[in-house]
TrEMBL record:
Species this protein is from: Actinokineospora alba
Keyword Signal: yes
Keywords on record: Signal
Signal peptide residue numbers: 1-31
Biased composition (Low complexity): 64-86
Residue ranges, annotated region (Disordered): 27-86
Statement: the UniProt record of this protein carries the keyword Signal: yes
Protein name per UniProt: Ig-like domain-containing protein
Domain of life: Bacteria
InterPro entries the UniProt entry points to: TonB_box_CS (IPR010916)
Length: 193
């Protein structure tokens, strides 16, 4: 094999190897469905046939045949996850389990003392993972807390005024993450000045 034939053979083998290894990927976007389409040309299949020096009168040469298979197209469908508030959330019940009373503070003329009684509220919610509660803020979602169970009860102190008349407090419950559904209880107790 002479030097020119050897160089030609080396060049052809280098081109064949580069072609077989080289691969590009083109990504396009489907205008209708928002899908990503990736077209990847397959690696070029290269077949090299070499004749021996003795079989060819000119000293032999290498022949390289290249065939390409059709490109493969892969379509990716995007997945979208959106957090939506629970639908169908409802307040089944919201009640006062224990009525409050204001404390009685004794005087020298009437030395009788009695502590106040706290209020206990109970709720049951369906269609939501929990409840949010507000005290004296019926328009402020979860002002007293946003991570209560869907069914439960809560004991709260009932601060009273030192004047004659009644003290009133408002208790509001919402299904967790649903600000459009709520129920408010108005609870009053007689002051004992």
């Amino acid at each position: 094999m002479n030097g020119t034939t050897a160089r030609r053979l080396t060049g052809l083998l280098a081109v064949a190897a580069f072609t077989a290894v080289g691969c590009t990927s083109v990504q396009t976007s489907d205008a209708q469905g928002g899908r990503d389409t990736t077209t990847t040309p397959p690696p070029t299949e290269t077949v090299t046939v070499t004749a021996s020096d003795a079989a060819k009168p000119d000293g032999g040469s290498a022949k390289t045949t290249t065939r390409a298979t059709p490109p493969r197209t892969t379509t990716h469908h995007p997945t979208t996850t959106t957090a939506h508030p629970p639908t169908g959330a409802a307040i089944v019940s919201f009640t006062v389990v224990q009525k409050p009373s204001c404390p009685i503070n004794g005087t020298p003329e009437a030395p009788f003392n009695k502590p106040g009684v706290p209020v206990i509220i109970a709720w049951k919610i369906t269609g939501a993972p929990g409840a949010a509660i507000a005290v004296d803020n019926p328009t402020l979602y979860g002002a007293y807390g946003k991570d209560y169970p869907a069914s439960g009860q809560l004991e709260l102190s009932f601060p009273c005024s030192g004047t004659t008349g009644q003290t009133t407090h408002k208790y509001t419950v919402w299904p967790k993450d649903v600000k459009t559904v709520s129920k408010t209880l108005t609870v009053s107790a007689q002051n004992n000045p």
